Amino acid sequence: MSEPKQQRSRDSFAKVRAAVLQLLHERGTGQFSLAEVSARAEVSIGSIYGRVSSKAELLRVIQSQEFDRLDAETAERVGAAGVGAASFASATAEIVTAYAGILRENRDLLSPFFLLGVEDAEILARGRRSGDAGQAIFIRALVAAAEEHRVELPTESAHWAFEVFYSLCVRYLGLGVTATASPDHAYAWPDLLERLARTVYLTISAE
Q1: Selection from 128, 130, 126 nearest residue 75 by Cα
Q2: 183, 89, 71: which is closest to 129 by C-alpha?
Q3: I need a labelling partner for 74 at 20 to 30 A (CA). Which of 28, 108, 126, 136 fits?
């Protein structure tokens, strides 16, 4: 979708985008109508249809914009994590903490799109692109930390460490399938981060 040339149109769509994000946060799913978006944004449905052809297209546009932001944030925060750490174990903990923090901070955005991707192939594909990009950043950070501390780390081991970390983090946060989420009282967040970092480090060390 092209960026509107007029400031008024940009401002109107910014309101629509904000309304969609609010509804995703409140509902935890995409179960809302364009009429609700229109009312929340105080923008006519006609104006919305002037930009997108359907609610599905609107959700795809919002996902693309938000996931572009997340991709950039992941590259910046995870890419810099672990640099100059006192040890490889400390570097691993910093990388895990940075990536897990991004997932937690954006849980209310990510979870609905996990669910929407079950039915929408385009949303699923866009989510996978971000997931693959995040994985690559995480692995590069681990490999760079290993090189800095002269630790032998095969790329395959780094890949497996990410799979273990990501699976545990997604389950704890309940991204997409809340029924599998760990109870809120199971682990405090700092405790979980410590356990995740230790698990990743031990997974790498066991190879």
Answers
A1: 130
A2: 71
A3: 28
Rounded CA-CA distance 87/200 in Å is 14
Question: Would you kindly state where each structural domain of the chain is located, as residue ranges?
Answer: 1-53, 62-205
**CA dihedral over 24, 27, 31, 34, signed as positive or negative:** negative
CATH value of 62-205 in 1.10.10, 3.40.1350, 1.10.357, 3.40.50: 1.10.357
Q: What integer pLDDT is reported at residue 5 of this predicted model?
A: 53
How high is the mean pLDDT in each 10-residue block of the chain (207 residues)?
Answer: 62 93 92 95 93 94 96 98 96 98 95 94 97 97 96 93 95 72 66 94 82
Longest dimension (CA), the chain: 61
* Backbone φ and ψ of 148, nearest 5°: -60, -35
Helix axes 189-205, 155-173, angle to 10 degrees: 160
Closest CA to 161 of 88, 102, 112: 88
* CATH for the 1-53 domain, from 3.40.50, 1.10.3470, 1.10.10, 2.120.10: 1.10.10
